[in-house]
Amino acid sequence: MIPPYHPPKKYSVRIAGHRTSISLEPLFWEMLTEAAAARDKSINALVAEIDAERIRADNPPGLAGAIRIWLVTQQRGDGIWPAAPSKYALPER
Question: 70, 51 in Cβ contact below 8 A?
């Protein structure tokens, strides 16, 4: 398992045919990778969906922030898409 307090790293993704980089902590990158696999999607496809939803927001966050928010809301069960099982699931409230 990746240590939880690790500085962000830059990762390259392709959205709508354009390359961009995002800075995410390795833990969030691992969670994003698992979320994409659980949905049978590529990381690029999942990031593109998150980006499209982010852009529709009244006050859109940056892409890296939107990815983190999306991952946390998935774990809480109040995300945009149905949550997939994950080893990072939060305890019941």
Answer: no
List all residues 6 or more positions away from 11 whose beta carbon is below 8 Å from its beta carbon. 21, 22, 23, 24, 29
Segment 51-86, tens digit of pLDDT: 999 999 888 899 999 999 999 988 877 665 444 445
Return the pLDDT at 3. 66
What is the pTM (predicted TM-score) of this model? 0.78
The ranges assigned to domains in the chain are 25-84
17, 10 contact by CB (below 8 A): no
Helix axes 63-76, 43-55, angle to 10 degrees: 100
